[in-house]
From TrEMBL:
Primary location class: cytoplasm
Cellular component terms (Gene Ontology): membrane; sarcomere; sarcoplasmic reticulum
Recorded name of the encoding gene: Mtmr12
Name by which UniProt lists this protein: Myotubularin-related protein 12
Lineage, top ranks: Eukaryota, Metazoa, Chordata, Craniata, Vertebrata
Origin species: Donacobius atricapilla
GO biological process: phosphatidylinositol dephosphorylation
Location of this chain's protein in the cell: Cytoplasm, Myofibril, Sarcomere; Sarcoplasmic reticulum
Length: 717
């Protein structure tokens, strides 16, 4: 039975960005809201442009239900073409993957998105011609291989006005000066130098224009093998030890070439192992970390747990949640990466040893480990501008192949791997373990992960600086000619207004106090805001508490802990590392010093906000981290308004420069899905513990019978 809402009378037109063209549309499309197994939904128009797929209903025309956290580029019912993961058609209740040319057109369309949204559209009431146009249009524009210049990035860049915010504090690392400033900031300029050898990309198109190498490395060495075999500087520790990376030589070589390359490498190692350089430790990441294929396989399995079509599917997977989570291996990969970063940190901090990360291209796992080490060891990388500068340095300019790894052009699935998402998942572990140490929030990380699929920013849509520079110049599509003006994702004002941006900043960030010379003795009291927070949480007991929580069906919303595989199991690290790890965790946390992740099994958790935010069944009404955030933001505004009143009384002048924070009155009406989704419909779920539900499932097979499943809560009442 379908609960029909009358088709809309008034014409609703899509909001088009500069350079965006309407390609095809279909009227009288029915969008399901399958949160409870019923077929309720709403009629509207489904459109496809050269930028997005969009569903327009009568709510789209009104601004009454404006969300507090509204994205100005991508709306609630918008899917960018790059965000489409898979499209299924339903034929006589059977699902079939849609790719390429279609002989028969489906009666239902299911779109799975890379940000884990699921859209269900019914096409039974749509004209046959419109069904053919919209389905073939959506499949063609989102699933078939395309040329780079066909990306919406270029259409937008040629048509949009250039009015970006020039106050962006992110260091872009596009100039020699940026690299020299970074060397000076980390005090690495005594032993390392920024080189111009690759100007005009005469060494390699894979290397950035400017990069940093040890002072003893000659220009001839850099030129000899197109930059391969050259240690490239990432960061210097306070004690002088440095983190370096290096791309290896191709494996299939004849003997004479291999001997020459080996001799070349031996010479390089000897040169950078002598004073004034520290001892050198080599770390081949291809042998000590999972392969990109393993990472892709694990993430593919993992995301399937969250691409939920309806309530029935959710509760069917809930009864075996832990075993399903364990079998994906995704959390274990995160643990291994964090453990590797801890090993590197120990070498730099305790052993005063230079670490050289080695990988075939030095643009994948090298980026993950070098970024994580800097987040753990350098408090500047835990500020918003510092973290953005880090992503620019190690990933964007460092040459990570975003275009291939995200498969934006649908050229080859073999190259696809969620390497950048892996980093964000690892950083999230640190953010949720040590919130006061970070200037940004988990919402910031979630929004950043979504921005991977928004092709109006150039940040995540090129494989290298060379590719970006060569495609930046050229004729525009209109009368004006000259270079394209690409936007950077770091200009958050493009996507969010100032009220929404407040959710990206951590109100409890323990800012580094500025030294006050006049009050040296009492300076430590300036840390009062920090000290009022718990310095560190006690280690959780692995006996009672953890397994007691396991029986709670809400565990899925909050934690997603791993069972077993502690750091001191089969792959026990060396004693020195274990001592370093235990010793650090036994002391109070300095939020501006070294941070080490807690990596024992239960500490590695599921990033609930990113993966559960579209699932109504997973929400905590009036709960979750947002309930705390709402109270804190309310309190902050109250304090600020009192400060303004005090300033008025003392100086008779109103401070017009007060940063306003959005008021979140009545946080009980919010849920843990906020700010990405407002309070959802109450899900019909069994009012029984998970274990009882499983027993019932075995007896009556309730999961497979929608009618009994939907009526369960009513019967129990």
């Amino acid at each position: 039975e379908i609960h029909i809402k009358e088709p809309i009378e008034k014409e609703v037109n899509p909001h088009l960005l500069p350079g965006e063209l309407l390609l095809c549309e279909a009227s009288t499309v029915y969008k399901y809201m399958q949160e409870d197994g019923s077929n309720r939904g709403t009629y509207g128009k489904l459109v496809c442009t050269n930028f997005k797929i969009s569903f327009l209903d009568d709510d789209s025309a009104s601004d009454d239900n404006e969300p507090q956290f509204k994205n100005k580029i991508v709306g609630e019912n918008d899917i960018t073409l790059q965000c489409v993961d898979q499209i299924y058609g339903v034929y006589d209740e059977k699902k079939k993957l849609l790719t390429g040319q279609l002989r028969k057109y489906p009666e239902k369309l299911i779109i799975y998105c890379k940000d884990l949204r699921v859209f269900n559209f019914c096409l039974r009431y749509t004209k046959e011609e419109e069904v053919k146009r919209i389905v073939s249009g959506i499949v063609h524009h989102s699933q078939t291989p395309k040329l780079l210049k066909r990306l919406f990035l270029f259409s937008y860049a040629s048509a949009a006005p250039n009015n970006t915010d020039g106050r962006n504090q992110t260091v872009m690392f596009e100039t020699l000066e940026d690299w020299r400033d970074e060397l000076e900031r980390t005090k690495g300029n005594v032993k390392y130098k920024a080189v111009t050898t690759n100007e005009g990309y005469r060494v390699s198109e894979k290397l950035p224009l400017y990069f940093v190498v040890p002072i003893c490395i000659s220009e001839e060495s850099i030129l000899k093998y197109e930059g391969r075999g050259i240690p490239i500087w990432c960061w210097s520790c306070h004690n002088g030890a440095a983190l370096l990376k290096m791309s290896t030589f191709p494996k299939e070589q004849d003997d004479s070439t291999s001997q020459m390359q080996k001799a070349f490498l031996d010479g390089i190692y000897k040169t950078i192992s002598k004073p004034p350089y520290e001892l050198l430790k080599l770390d081949d990441l291809s042998s000590s970390l999972p392969s990109l294929q393993d990472i892709q396989t694990a993430y593919t399995r993992f995301k399937q747990l969250f691409l939920i079509d309806n309530s029935t599917d959710f509760w069917a997977t809930d009864v075996k949640w832990f075993s399903l989570l364990e079998s994906t291996n995704w959390l274990e990969i995160i643990r291994r990466v964090l453990k590797k970063a801890t090993e590197v940190a120990e070498c730099l901090e305790i052993q005063h040893t230079n670490v050289l990360l080695i990988e075939e291209s030095a643009t994948d796992l090298c980026c993950v480990i070098s970024s994580l080490v800097q987040v753990m060891m350098d408090s500047y990388s835990r500020t918003k501008s510092g973290f953005q500068s880090l992503i620019q340095k190690e990933w964007v300019i460092g040459g990570h192949g975003f275009l291939d790894r995200c498969n934006h052009l649908h050229k080859s699935e073999k190259e696809e791997a969620p390497v950048f998402l892996l980093l964000l998942n690892c950083v999230w572990q640190l953010v949720q373990q040590y919130p006061p140490a970070f200037e940004f929030t988990e919402t910031y990380l979630t929004v950043l992960s979504d921005s991977l699929y928004v092709p109006i920013f150039s940040t995540f849509f090129f494989n290298s600086q060379h590719q970006r520079d060569t495609n930046k110049s050229g004729e525009s599509f209109k009368t004006q000619s000259g270079p394209f003006r690409f936007l950077t994702v770091w200009d958050w004002a493009v996507q969010f207004d100032s009220k929404a941006q407040a959710f990206l900043n951590n109100p409890l960030y323990a800012e580094k106090p500025k030294p006050d010379k006049s009050q040296r003795k009492t300076a430590r009291f300036k840390h009062q805001r920090q000290l009022s927070l718990p310095l560190t949480q006690a280690k959780p007991s692995t006996k009672r508490g953890f397994f007691r929580e396991e029986t709670d069906h809400l565990i899925k919303n909050i934690l997603g802990k791993r069972i077993g595989k502690f750091i001191n199991s089969a792959d026990e690290p060396p004693n020195s590392l274990r001592e370093f790890y235990d010793s650090w965790h036994s002391k109070p946390v300095d939020y501006h010093g070294l941070l080490l992740p807690r990596i024992d099994g239960p500490e590695i958790k599921v990033w609930a906000q990113r993966y559960l935010r579209w699932i109504p069944e997973a929400q905590l009404h009036g709960g979750g981290t947002i309930a705390t955030a709402a109270k804190i933001l309310d309190l902050m505004e109250e304090v600020q308004s009192l400060q303004v009143k005090m300033d008025e009384e003392h100086s008779q002048a109103v401070s017009g420069d007060v940063h306003s924070v959005p008021m979140l009155r009545n946080s009980a009406r919010l849920s843990s899905l906020f700010p990405f989704a407002l309070l959802q419909r109450q899900s019909v779920k069994p009012a029984l513990p998970t274990s009882t539900w499983k027993d019932l499932e075995d007896e009556d097979d309730l999961v497979k019978r929608d009618d009994e499943f939907v009526d369960l809560s009513g019967d129990m009442l």
